[in-house]
Design goal:
2 domains; nine-stranded mixed sheet; 23 strands; binds magnesium ion; 412 residues; five-stranded mixed sheet; 29% helix; binds adenosine-5'-triphosphate
């Protein structure tokens, strides 16, 4: 892509209400634009990263044999009355009426709809188990939308649901999703701590949260450095210095961003909404459910928070909007211009996603923008262009190397 044609409205100053580093940077880098409190447009660069995260999720969930579907955001109140949540959910639920005065909501989560999807199908134990997921926009009228994509009122989530005939089978899915989540977050450049959580609103048995340790997180995590114990303070009530319930060492407390959340739902929805199957003895039983949420837009935000300085982003390789950024120091110079274009074509022909800064801007302006845009590998075409040489920059290592144009592909 030629940068002159890419819509990337970088800003000199962050919006006044942007409190945390990632929110400031994402606005300045032209990744997102606020429409109203907690409501954002994903601009082309930001949306590219979102799609990369989604692709990683799809690949990892394919590995555990979960199938993708897409449910409606617009949900009739009848199903929520069946589950009992129409009255329980409270003001976070975005409610609206159609022209006939019937009640609907904009889905904050999809337990009701997914149960309606499967309940006519699961006549027998032979149809079980299976896992379904979707990637979709969710709506929640959050009390305090803030920190950019961290707490939106409209946000992108991957939500998955499993349907098991037995508790043992639910355990197997729970473990598979745990492993898939660890891998997904790793590929997004995020180390996560798994902490047991309060089941809260959804109701059910066991639950775990995936936390990215960060001072801008909204949760307090008690954890142990000796063993892998971790718990949400909200749930455990443990404090800094208390003995670890697992190994006795002193516990620590730090803030975390919750990027994912998995629950053993059990039969809450299958009982209330009558999703039953015939077991091997011909007896009807409620199907045993698990649900697995992953905040995609929040993952993007957490990744920026972890992989940036005040004025620069360095994207983790697998989610970077482009792999290589070509920056001619002076695009008016014929040699630099021609060499930059030549390398640009070669990389593109070899399937490498590359951004060429073909603007007639001062070098300083271009480098400032490049720092914000955050592409990890840079090819700077400058004075050495006369000898067919360019500077290759690996921003992860802060390494520069003069490279012959014929060696660039090998280098990458
Ligand atoms: P939180 O405690 O942060 O409100 P939650 O327990 O309500 O989260 P879930 O309902 O389990 O979250 O949603 C699954 C995932 O969706 C969360 O782990 C988080 O990553 C993401 N998420 C939840 N609420 C929001 C929001 N308002 N904006 C962006 N992402 C969100
Ligand atoms: Mg919430």
């Amino acid at each position: 892509m030629k940068q002159s044609l890419l819509f990337v409205p970088t800003l000199k100053d962050a919006p006044k209400d942007a409190e945390v580093k990632s929110h400031k940077l994402m606005s300045r880098a032209g990744l997102i634009k606020q429409v109203a409190a907690g409501i954002y447009t994903y601009l082309p660069l930001g949306y590219k990263v979102i799609k990369n995260i989604e692709e990683i999720i799809r690949q990892e969930l394919e590995k555990i044999d979960a199938s993708e579907l897409l449910m409606p955001a617009l949900q009739p109140s009848d199903l929520w009355m069946e589950s009992g949540r129409w009255d329980e959910y409270g003001p976070e639920l975005m409610r609206l009426q159609d022209r006939k005065g019937r009640d609907f909501c904009l889905g904050p989560t999809h337990e009701e709809i997914i149960t309606q999807v499967v309940r006519d199908y699961i006549s027998s134990y032979k149809k079980l188990p299976f896992a379904l997921y979707q990637i979709q926009t969710k709506f929640r009228d959050e009390m305090r939308p803030r920190f950019g994509l961290m707490r939106g009122r409209e946000f992108i989530m991957k939500d998955a649901y499993t349907f098991s005939p037995t508790e043992e089978d639910l355990d197997i899915w729970y473990k598979k999703f745990t492993k898939a989540y660890i891998d997904i977050f790793k590929r997004c450049g995020l180390e996560t701590k798994i902490v047991s959580s309060d089941v809260g609103q959804i109701g059910g048995d066991e639950a775990d949260e995936f936390m990215v340790m960060s001072e801008v997180g909204e949760d307090n995590i008690t954890y142990c450095n000796k063993c892998n114990y971790g718990a949400n303070q909200e749930h455990s009530g443990l404090n800094e210095g208390d003995p670890c319930p697992k190994c006795g060492a002193d516990l620590l407390v730090a803030r975390g961003i919750e990027v994912g959340n998995i629950f053993k739902l059990g039969t809450k929805y299958s009982e209330s909404m009558n999703a039953k199957f015939m077991d091997q003895n011909g007896k009807p039983k409620p199907v045993i459910m698990g649900c697995y949420g992953l905040g995609i837009s929040r993952t993007l935000m957490a990744s920026v928070e972890q992989h940036s300085t005040e004025n620069a982003i360095i994207w983790p390789k697998e989610i970077s909007p482009y792999q290589v950024h070509i920056i001619p120091v002076n695009y008016k110079n014929e040699e630099q211009h021609d060499l930059a274009l030549e390398i640009y074509s070669t990389l593109r022909e070899n399937g490498i996603e590359v951004l060429l800064d073909d603007r007639f801007e001062r070098a300083g302006v271009k480098f400032k923008d490049a720092d914000l845009i955050g592409i990890p590998f840079r090819i700077i075409v400058g004075k050495d262009a006369t000898e067919g040489k360019v500077e290759f920059v690996n921003r992860y290592k802060d390494e520069k190397q003069l490279v012959n144009k014929s060696d660039i592909l090998d280098y990458i």
